[in-house]
Structure formats: structure tokens, C-alpha cells
């Protein structure tokens, strides 16, 4: 069953998102093992990551993964790793051995994806997703053959915007994650939010247990 969306004020989206992730991580950690958190890039998750760095979580027992990454070096402005490093890893002082980075600087894109598959846990505990105006999530775009993938856990794909090549987790990985938070903001997402919540055949609708959290503009409740 698809969870009802959580609608918050725009200025509260980062803090509310951070609280949700912190609670989910603590629940996973309460089972006495390490917890895994997979991060997406983009301007909407960034405030949540900054807030998350302030939350009281046993961070020494958390391993960090990535939902997707552009095939760029880790210091490139378009790198999702760079965003996470600046907003979360550096503020927390996360040691490198707890960060499983998608190696977007590699030229053999398929092998890079296959190598990342080997690093993933059997199931991710917590995943943070976003949603594009075309209904994509991760780097799974409408009409892409990657949406039909059943076996591979990570793929190299081409997106519609430059830089085109991406590495992404596939639907089996996202669908098997224990808890998934989707963050959405802005009136420009209003139409696609409505379509995803209605269950239309869009990539973001295919991870049905995602808890979508959005500001009022994205929810169609104001500007």
C-alpha cells in the first residue's frame, strides 16, 4: 500500500526529512548491527543532509552508499559524492572506509557498475530519493530499458541531460530497501507528484513503499 504523502512548509522540508532519516537509521541500528544509508543528489536533499549532520545518530555504525552518480570525477560540481561530502561527510567526520562511493571517474562504465554491485549489502536499510519533473527517480528515466532490469543491481545508463552518462541502482535494489524517503519541492513538480501518487506508470511510482515528503507547492497546496 502506498503511504500517504507528508506535506510540510518549504522551510521545514530539510529538518523534517532529516528527522525521518535519523529515526529510520536508529530503528535499523536498534537491531544491533550496522545500518546502511543510500543518498541521492540534487538541490532538494541537500538541506536535509545539512540538518542530518546535526542529528544524534550513532554515525560510527552507519555505512553510506549512493543511489546514483554522474560519470564525473568526485570533485566535479555535478558529482553527487561532492554534494554529500560537503553537506554530510565533512561535518560528521565520516571515515573513508564507511563511504562506498560510485566511481564516476572510471572510463569502463559497465565494469564500474558491476564493481559497485559487489559492494552493496543484500538490502539497504534507508534510501533517500528525489523526483524529476519527468517522473524519474535515481537515474531511472521514463522509457529507459533499465526499468525492466531484474537481475543487475547497478547499471550504467544515459540520461536526457548533460552529463548524460550515469550509474544508478536498479528497481530491484530500491524496491527491496527497508525504508525509502522521497523528497520533492517546488511548484514545478506539482503535476508529476499528482501523477506519481495516482500510480501512473512512471519510474518514481514503481518504488511503491516510498514515503514521499514534499512542500506545499509540490503538493498543490500553494506557492
Task: Explain what the structure shows.
The structure is a single chain. The protein is an alpha/beta fold and 223 residues long. The protein has one domain (6-63, 70-168, 177-190, 206-215): Rossmann fold. It is 30% helix and 18% strand. The protein contains seven helices and nine strands. A six-stranded parallel sheet has the order 1-9-8-5-2-3. Strands 4-7-6 form a three-stranded antiparallel sheet. Helix 2 (45-52) runs parallel beside helix 3 (80-92).
How would the blueprint of this fold be written?
Elements: E1 6-8, H1 13-29, E2 35-39, H2 45-52, E3 62-66, E4 68-70, H3 80-92, H4 109-119, E5 126-129, E6 154-158, E7 165-169, H5 171-176, E8 179-184, H6 190-197, E9 211-215, H7 216-219
Parallel strand pairs: 1-9, 2-3, 2-5, 5-8, 8-9
Antiparallel strand pairs: 4-7, 6-7
Report the biggest beta sheet as strand number plus sense, adding barrel if it closes.
6 strands, parallel
* Residue share in β-strands: 15-25%
Overall mean pLDDT stands at: 96
- Tally of helical segments: 7
DSSP helix fraction: 25-40%
Secondary-structure element order, as H and E? EHEHEEHHEEEHEHEH
Provide the gyration radius in Å.
16 Å
CATH names the topology as: Rossmann fold
Q: Architecture, CATH level 2?
A: 3-Layer(aba) Sandwich
Instruction: Provide the domain count.
Output: 1
Q: Give me the count of strands.
A: 9
Q: Which residues sit in consecutive blocks of at least 5 with pLDDT less than 50?
A: none
The CATH first-level class comes to: Alpha Beta
Silhouette: globular
Classification by helices and strands: alpha/beta
Amino acid at each position: 500500500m502506498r503511504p500517504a504523502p507528508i506535506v510540510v512548509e518549504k522551510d521545514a522540508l530539510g529538518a523534517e526529512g532529516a528527522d525521518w532519516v535519523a529515526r529510520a537509521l536508529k530503528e535499523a541500528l536498534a537491531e544491533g548491527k550496522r545500518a546502511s544509508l543510500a543518498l541521492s543528489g540534487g538541490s532538494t536533499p541537500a538541506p536535509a543532509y545539512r540538518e542530518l549532520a546535526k542529528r544524534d545518530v550513532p554515525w560510527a555504525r552507519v555505512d553510506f552508499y549512493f543511489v546514483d552518480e554522474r560519470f564525473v570525477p568526485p570533485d566535479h560540481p555535478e558529482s553527487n559524492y561532492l554534494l554529500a561530502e560537503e553537506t554530510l561527510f565533512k561535518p560528521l567526520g565520516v571515515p573513508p572506509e564507511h563511504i562506498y562511493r560510485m566511481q564516476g571517474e572510471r572510463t569502463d562504465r559497465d565494469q564500474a557498475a558491476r564493481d559497485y554491485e559487489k559492494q552493496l549489502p543484500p538490502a539497504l536499510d534507508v534510501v533517500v530519493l528525489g523526483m524529476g519533473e519527468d517522473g524519474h527517480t535515481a537515474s531511472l528515466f521514463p522509457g529507459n530499458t533499465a526499468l525492466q532490469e531484474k537481475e543487475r543491481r547497478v547499471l550504467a545508463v544515459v540520461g536526457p541531460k548533460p552529463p548524460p552518462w550515469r550509474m544508478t541502482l536498479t528497481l530491484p535494489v530500491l524496491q527491496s530497501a527497508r525504508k525509502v524517503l522521497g523528497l520533492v519541492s517546488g511548484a514545478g513538480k506539482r503535476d508529476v507528484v499528482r501523477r506519481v501518487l495516482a500510480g501512473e506508470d512512471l519510474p518514481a511510482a514503481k518504488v511503491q513503499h516510498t514515503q514521499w515528503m514534499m512542500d506545499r507547492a509540490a503538493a498543490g497546496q500553494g506557492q
